[in-house]
Amino acid sequence: MGGHTFRRAAWLAAALLFPLATLAQTYPDKPIHLVVPFPPGGVADIIARPVAEKLANALGQPVIVENRGGATGTIGGAYVAHAAPDGYTLLFGTTNEIAMSPTLYSALPYDPTRDFAPVAIVAQFPNVLVTGPTVKATRLADLTAQAQAKPKSLTFASSGQGSTNHLTAELYQNQANVQVVHIPYKGGGPALVDLTGGHVDAMFATLPSAVALIKGGKLRALAVTGESRSPTLPDVPTAREAGLPGLVVTTWNGVLAPAGTPAAVVERLAQALKQAVDDPDIRNKLAAVGAEPLYTPPQAFAAVIRADYARWSGLIKKAGIKVD
Q1: Under 8 Å between Cβ of 221 and 233
Q2: How many Å apart are CA 307 and CA 203, to the nearest integer?
Q3: Please, which residues have CB within 8 angstroms of residue 189's CB and are 6 or more apart in sequence?
Q4: pLDDT of residue 160
Q5: What's the Cα-to-Cα distance from 43 to each of 36, 221, 285, 286, 303, rounded to whole Å?
Q6: Residue 289's pLDDT band (cuts 50, 70, 90)
Q7: How far is CA 112 from CA 8, 88, 103, in A?
Q8: Maximum distance among all alpha carbons in the chain?
Q9: How far apart are CA 159 and CA 281, in angstroms?
């Protein structure tokens, strides 16, 4: 049994000595750290900051956003998994390190199904296929034709090996019968910088991370991967409309606490996040960057994690992707 397991057991034992109502009343009485497991500029960071601001208002304590990027979110994930389960260190989690990484890594420093207490999903969004100045194609079909004519001639950026950007590109290759070259970065921000600079050709970027660059004319959007068109980019077709019916990918952002966090604290956080997501200001801010505000409470969030893990593990195994 590891050291952090003993610490968690000690915290649990201590928590049981106090009534849950008292815990709920006294929590929080100091600043909370919200760990974003990706560098600044990526979608998780873009969404986490306004959520943290509203969460602080709801809880009456500062919520400090802390970026701990690297290894497709797993470094930040491990940091929170091993933190004291007292509600003061939280993960602004993503589909990457929670639902995808368990299959990608043979030796994760945490178990996503046992080392976290899901609190709430706060937003979901599609990916968007964007191209930089090196690509002349204006439609998905044109890009696919180019990729089919010259296999491995196009480079696709991602926020890291095994990220949602990478796995969506893998799905695209399978669906369109093409071969592209994957270029992984240490986060969506750095990847988009190189894409706009013409160092890579394309990317299945998360919509919130790319929408400003699209609207500013720095990138061209060819398709979104949602079930329907994004209200933020109503003129951009879905991949399904553009001829690839199976290329449907949406991902989420949500808050998770270390396993063993008292139920009353999880419930207090969940209610505060519901209050934050229901705030018209934050709904407008999220919608403006292409994210759909979405509140999903703890038990339903846990069910989403299980379903997403089942979906992505099958796709990852089929594509033979490993990250070690």
Answers
A1: yes
A2: 26
A3: 39, 40, 41, 42, 45, 209
A4: 84
A5: 10, 17, 13, 11, 23
A6: confident
A7: 16, 19, 11
A8: 68
A9: 29
- Do residues 174 and 317 make contact, with C-beta atoms less than 8 angstroms apart? no
pLDDT in tens, 9-66: 655 666 555 554 465 578 999 999 999 998 887 789 989 999 999 999 999 999 999 9
Half-sphere exposure at residue 163, Cβ-oriented, CA atoms within 13 angstroms: 31
Asked if residues 91 and 44 have their Cβ atoms less than 8 Å apart, the reply is no
Both tokens of 277, joined, read 């997501």
Residues contacting 299, CB < 8 A, separation 6+: none
DSSP string, 9-78: HHHHHHHHTS-HHHHHHH--SS-EEEEESS-TTSHHHHHHHHHHHHHHHHHTS-EEEEE---GGGHHHHH
Where in the chain does DSSP place strands (E)? 32-36, 63-67, 89-94, 116-131, 155-158, 181-184, 202-206, 220-224, 250-258, 292-296
Instruction: Report the candidate in 48, 182, 49, 36 with the shortest Cα–Cα distance to residue 97.
Output: 36
Count of other CB atoms within 10 angstroms of residue 311: 14
Residue with tokens 């509140």: 295
Question: Residue 149 gets which letter from DSSP?
Answer: H
pLDDT in tens, 231-283: 999 999 999 999 999 999 999 999 999 999 999 999 999 999 999 999 999 99
What domains can be seen in the chain, in order of their start residue? 32-125+250-319 (3.40.190.150), 132-242 (3.40.190.10)
Residue 203 tokens, joined: 């990317």
Interatomic CA distance for residues 47 and 53, integer angstroms? 11
